[in-house]
């Protein structure tokens, strides 16, 4: 697959019809898609800001060279994460299965936070997060013209299919695209954990590889439990779904034991 990357005033409004009858935990959840969108934007801002703040606390570390695996990984994984957030936003807007939407919310939360961490780290080392010093994937020995063609990235037709789908088809397509996306992310993160020189980058990459490999397994379980197809219309895999996508991935503990 290849792809193109692409303070409102708070006022009190009447509760939507049926909201008065919600009880327990459900009363804490957004009642409308507009409320969901506002909540997600706030969540992304908070997660990214917190990641940025944590990055500030780690300032002052000597910078690896611009052509290093450390720098290349932070640029490439930031772009990879940005598409994962985009896919998750579409799922939350159009999907229907609550168990699938749990994954979308967690991806938005965790990967927005990690984007903040990675971009702040680049800034601390004197690099502009918007101006990369090397071609995508060059640090892995496979230079690509754009981040759009990195392994696991959804292409334009797949993004369009996800936007235009409805109901269970959205859920199935999201899980298929995100499992493929995670598989590409795991390969990148494992390569960085093996070849980066900065301890923070090595630890961060190892943690990402472990978490995303585990989430592939969890998403496959969720797909099977919901009776969703692994090959929905509009999906072309980068990584084979005919075998365990985690077979070649390190499923051990992350470097810090998490």
Can you characterise this structure?
There is one protein chain. This protein is mostly helical. The protein has a single domain, classed as Ferritin, core subunit, four-helix bundle (Ferritin, Up-down Bundle). 55% of the residues lie in helices and 0% in strands. The protein has six helices and no strands. Helix 5 runs antiparallel to helix 6. It is elongated and about 50 Å long.
Summarize the entry for a quick read.
With 258 residues, the protein is mostly helical.
List keywords for this structure.
258 residues, 6 helices, 0% strand, mainly alpha, disordered N terminus, Ferritin
Give the number of domains: 1
- The secondary-structure element order is HHHHHH
Beta-strand segment tally: 0
CATH fold annotation = Ferritin
Question: Which architecture does the CATH hierarchy give at level 2?
Answer: Up-down Bundle
- Measured between the Cα atoms of the first and last residue, the distance is 31 Å
Summarize the SSE layout with pairings.
Blueprint: H1 33-57, H2 69-94, H3 98-124, H4 156-164, H5 168-195, H6 199-226
């Amino acid at each position: 697959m290849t792809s193109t990357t692409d303070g409102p005033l708070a006022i009190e409004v009447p509760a939507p019809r049926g909201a008065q009858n919600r009880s327990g935990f459900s009363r804490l959840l957004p009642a409308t898609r507009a409320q969901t969108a506002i909540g997600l934007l706030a969540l992304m801002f908070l997660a990214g800001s917190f990641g940025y703040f944590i990055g500030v606390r780690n300032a002052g570390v000597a910078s690896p060279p611009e052509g290093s695996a450390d720098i290349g990984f932070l640029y490439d994984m930031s772009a990879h994460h940005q598409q994962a957030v985009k896919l998750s936003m579409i799922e939350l807007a159009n999907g229907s299965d609550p168990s699938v939407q749990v994954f979308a919310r967690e991806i938005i939360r965790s990967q927005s936070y990690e984007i903040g961490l990675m971009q702040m780290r680049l800034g601390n080392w004197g690099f502009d997060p918007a101006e990369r010093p090397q071609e995508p994937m060059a640090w892995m020995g496979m230079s690509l013209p754009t981040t759009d063609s990195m392994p696991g990235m959804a292409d334009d037709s797949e993004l369009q299919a996800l936007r235009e789908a409805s109901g269970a088809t959205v859920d199935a397509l999201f899980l298929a695209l995100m499992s493929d996306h995670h598989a590409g992310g795991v390969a990148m993160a494992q390569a960085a954990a093996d070849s980066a020189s900065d301890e923070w980058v090595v630890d961060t990459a190892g943690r990402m590889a472990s978490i995303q490999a585990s989430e592939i397994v969890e998403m496959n379980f969720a797909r099977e439990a919901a009776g969703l197809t692994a090959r929905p219309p509009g999906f072309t895999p980068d990584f084979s779904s005919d075998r365990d996508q985690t077979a070649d991935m390190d499923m051990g503990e992350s470097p810090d034991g998490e």
